[in-house]
Amino acid sequence: MNKKVALITGVTGQDGAYLAEFLLDKGYEVHGIKRRTSLFNTDRIDHLFQDPHVSDGRFVLHHGDMTDSSSLIRIIQQTRPDEIYNLAAQSHVAVSFEEPEYTANSDALGALRVLEAIRILGMEKKTRFYQASTSELYGLVQETPQKETTPFYPRSPYAVAKLYAYWITVNYREAYGMYACNGILFNHESPIRGETFVTRKITRALARIKLGLQECLYLGNINALRDWGHARDYVEMQWLMLQQEQAEDYVIATGQQYSVRDFVNAVVSELGMSIRWEGDGVDEKGYDEKGQCIVAIDPRYFRPTEVETLLGDASKAKSKLGWVPRTSFVELVREMAESDLKQAEFDLKVQEHGHKALRGQG
Ligand code: NDP
Ligand code: GDR
To answer: Molecular function (GO) terms listed (predicted)?
Structure first.
């Protein structure tokens, strides 16, 4: 049997890296789209790359951009994928308030461009399409927990753009009989999560504070509640959704909810530190055992409209796909904290001895 071909947009991101690894393990030929940047942006996938000069590599990268139809059409025409995973997006909710038009272009129209490319190339019956939809669609929640039938109420330019992408995916499925589906994924994290999302910001900063590399961590709304899972578990479901007889949309979540403050407390305890919270609202602060302020609120991180609470009900994925999340909240926190502590130890050595002193230390 010929090996299956997958194309991943957003392959350089957190999910793209885990998904590429997962599909390569399954024997796929994997193509990824990366955009041109002035510095390398492939750190997360460098270990998967094989030099085309020395192997016939099953992992191939192409330059393209979600805002550029012609590049998308060319890549899909060249690679003729059996499965497309549309993960590329300006994925930061707070940034979407600063760059709403660009966010709509890449996140909403980007999905349309990929779907149209499949149609223009006459590949509607060959190519299956996965859209990275999000729990942010629920925004101002209308029902708890949230499931596939819960009404949407987006609260940011990011979520509004993703709402368009959600519905255009449904529309192409219904209008053209395409196998196209939405994974409505709740927050998922990992040691390779972007450093400005709250979980990674916390593990990175607290590890640095522990080693004396940083004094304080500034956060926004620490009362926000989220349903946090592990990215490694969630990409398996992205693949499973494309292996069914019929294309359908699925919620993926752990069904457990914690606040940002709970996440801070869990990381503090994982790192063997302690924290004492004092004060209210913007004046609330967290102190360590020596009385040093290690967490404070900076209102600059508040969002014009906030999503206060999200909690998912993944019963449909459990019963129809047999999917269950494997990693617990505590295990997720531990993996992220350990990884950032190692990085902080490395940074400390460099600060104390310079790069030369590290030579030969591996
Ligand atoms: P990341 O921000 O880590 O990765 C986003 C990827 O999209 C990166 O590879 C980025 O490239 C790429 N990208 C951004 N803009 C463009 C563009 N204009 N053209 C081409 N590529 C572009 O996100 P995640 O991996 O965390 O998330 C993957 C997808 O899932 C996103 O669509 C996100 O919105 C969605 N999602 C994520 C959830 C989560 O909790 N992680 C939950 C629900 C949905 P570069 O590396 O160059 O920046
Ligand atoms: P989110 O993730 O907006 O849910 O979107 P993020 O980690 O950015 O925020 C989660 C919650 O934490 C609060 N918060 C802070 N957030 C950040 N980034 N920085 C802070 O300093 C801070 N302090 C408090 C936020 O206000 C929010 O309530 C993520 C992205 O991956 C999306 O692409 C994805 O669709 C959703 O998850 C599901």
So the answer is: GDP-mannose 4,6-dehydratase activity
The closest residue, in CA terms, to atom 2 on ligand 1 is: 91
Pairing of strands 293-297, 285-287: antiparallel
Length of the chain: 362
- Which letter does DSSP use for residue 109 in this model? I
> What is this structure's pTM?
0.97
Q: Name the residue of 197, 199, 227, 230 whose CB sits within 8 Å of the most ligand 2 atoms, as the mutation to test its pocket.
A: 197
The pLDDT tens digits of the residues spanning 347-357 come to: 999 999 887 76
Which ipTM value was assigned to this complex? 0.99
Ligand 1 pocket check: which of 7, 15, 40 to mutate, most ligand atoms within 8 Å of Cβ? Answer: 15
158 is catalytic: yes
Determine the Cα–Cα distance for residues 162 and 152; give it in Å rounded to an integer. 11
Please give the helix or strand (H or E) that residue 252 lies within, else none.
strand 250-252
Active site residue 134: yes
d(CA 319, CA 309): 25
Amino acid at the residue 193: R
Distance from Cα 132 to the centre of ligand 1, integer Å:
9
Asked whether 131 and 69 are in contact (CB, 8 A), the reply is no
8 Å CB contact between 230 and 326:
yes
Contact between 24 and 58 (Cβ < 8 Å): yes
Q: pLDDT (tens digit, 9 = 90+) per residue, 55-71?
A: 668 999 999 999 999 99
Calpha distance 116→125 (Å, rounded): 13
Residue pointed to by tokens 């946090």: 228
Which residue's CA lies nearest to atom 36 of ligand 2?
Answer: 187
Dihedral sign for Cα atoms in the order 305, 311, 317, 319: negative
- H or E stretch covering 262: helix 260-270
183 class by beta-carbon count within 10 Å (0-12 exposed, 13-18 middle, 19+ buried): buried
Active site residue 12: no
